[in-house]
């Protein structure tokens, strides 16, 4: 009766790795947070020890692992990650062999999109785009419970050239902080502090912010034109900015998008747990598939 | 044995309506071309008379009808067309009632995408974007035999603001011709004639052309970033321009898209028959579904 067993989701980030033990409905029973170690081999060891810790009461039905970069879900391979310094790592097969458990493997942002669609801000919608704006910027389109992968390359909108550089060099949370510091030689703790200065009337902060929002608005228009999603879920650190971000983006859609249907813009609900919850959903789906196969076989 | 019967596909365009009688493999057995009449009622009458003409030898298994504008495939309704002046016409139900035959209803460009994917330039690919550049500009993404519809609103990239106006006011075949005439007061027969003047070294023609290609290149970068399709099939009148269009677009992708996977750019193969062939495919799919239901029921 593996359908009643919990699953484990692990989200390997650029600096930290998060793991959740969750039931089939996505409710979190336990969680862990560790620094991400260097090298794929050490990441596999960490995943095994997180699974061991979270499996003390009962063996999970399956484990889901998600990573950033270019991910080929169909082959279970991490094709490339500049930040984590790996290429062509067959994580799914390697982890399944070490754990002796079914392993699902995926992409952190696409898994986050799945989680926001099933459990978070896009619950109940026909389709949604998840748009995390943090250290980088990307987008994932989820529909009918599936996220479009494009062979692992879909959604890398942070790489699109816009006025002032590539999108994520202008409009990511990291870029907003860096650009403000470049113009003022005044260190800030992050984009949230730049946002505070915008609210306080700082002209340089306002300039940096408006350039970022303008670039994000352009991205929003293009994804609306191409996909016409019912909802765009804005996540990542920048989504914390609230009306300072959402109001001008909504105005941009109103001003520049002439068609009757524009997406609703909503903040993400799952925060930095979207990836690990998405990994748990991939694991739960895998476990359910195996049950069906067993029952039908 | 309806699976061996032919199907009929009808593509209602802004000026002309095309109809094909095709077998299940998409081979055209007969075709007709008529001016598109005003008003939805007259379009229905035309569709009935085209079906009667093309059904002389044998009743078709099903009929597919596709129209431009905002189309809700799930309800079988033409929501809106500025050019054809209709709104909320339940074409599928109306035509099925008059014909007494199964009727599939869809969108002209999405049907064209299906046809290019199954029978044309994107045969054998995992996914493709069909990008017709003619009187207007739109895009349709096809994957696993399905075209993303976005409730009828997906793909309207012609409406995106770019330098100089909306994309289709700068980069459509119609816009290229119009913009050249505005700058020279020299009438041209169409974008093809502007292309000839570009090839002959005309500076004004070159300027108009480069602005159009630049805007199309931007659209290509965004759709690549969001969808990472294996192939982009460029159709419509402008695709006739050959290397004058495809070479600078390819260079733009090389210059501005940093990731390993970029789509192949190819010209459409089905020309102005893509829509009617796509309508025939929708009809064939509908007929096949009915057969399966009957066999299983």
UniProtKB/TrEMBL annotation, chains A, B:
One MF term in the entry's GO annotations: kinase activity
Domain of life: Bacteria
InterPro entries for the chain: ATPase_NBD (IPR043129), ROK (IPR000600)
Keywords, ordered alphabetically: Kinase, Transferase
Protein family (similarity comment): Belongs to the ROK (NagC/XylR) family.
Record's protein name: Glucokinase
Native source organism of the sequence: Saccharopolyspora kobensis
Lineage of producing organism: Bacteria, Bacillati, Actinomycetota, Actinomycetes, Pseudonocardiales
């Amino acid at each position: 009766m593996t359908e009643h067993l919990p699953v484990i989701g692990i989200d390997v980030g650029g600096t930290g790795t998060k793991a959740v033990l969750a039931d089939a409905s996505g409710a979190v029973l336990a969680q862990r947070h560790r620094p991400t170690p260097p090298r794929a081999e050490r990441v596999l060891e960490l995943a095994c020890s997180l699974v061991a810790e979270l499996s003390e009461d009962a063996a999970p039905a399956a484990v889901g692992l998600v990573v950033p970069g270019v991910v080929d879900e169909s082959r279970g391979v991490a094709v490339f990650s500049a930040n984590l310094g790996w290429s062509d790592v067959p994580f799914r097969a390697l982890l399944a062999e070490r754990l002796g458990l079914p392993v699902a493997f995926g992409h952190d942002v696409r898994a986050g999109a799945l989680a926001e669609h099933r459990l978070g801000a896009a619950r109940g919608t026909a389709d949604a785009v998840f748009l995390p704006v943090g250290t980088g910027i990307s987008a994932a389109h989820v529909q009918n419970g599936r996220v479009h992968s494009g062979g692992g390359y879909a959604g890398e909108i942070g790489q699109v050239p816009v006025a002032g550089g590539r999108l994520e060099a202008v409009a990511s949370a990291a870029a907003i902080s860096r650009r403000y510091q470049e113009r003022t030689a005044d260190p800030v703790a992050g984009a949230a502090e730049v946002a505070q200065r915008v609210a306080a009337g700082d002209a340089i902060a306002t300039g940096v912010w408006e350039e970022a929002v303008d670039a994000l608005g352009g991205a929003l228009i293009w994804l609306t034109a191409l996909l016409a999603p019912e909802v765009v879920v804005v996540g990542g650190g920048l989504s914390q900015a609230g009306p300072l971000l959402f109001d001008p983006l909504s105005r941009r859609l109103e001003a520049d998008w002439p068609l009757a249907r524009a997406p609703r813009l909503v903040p993400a609900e799952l925060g930095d747990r979207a990836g690990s919850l998405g990994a748990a959903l991939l694991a739960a789906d895998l476990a359910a598939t195996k049950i069906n196969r067993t029952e039908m076989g």
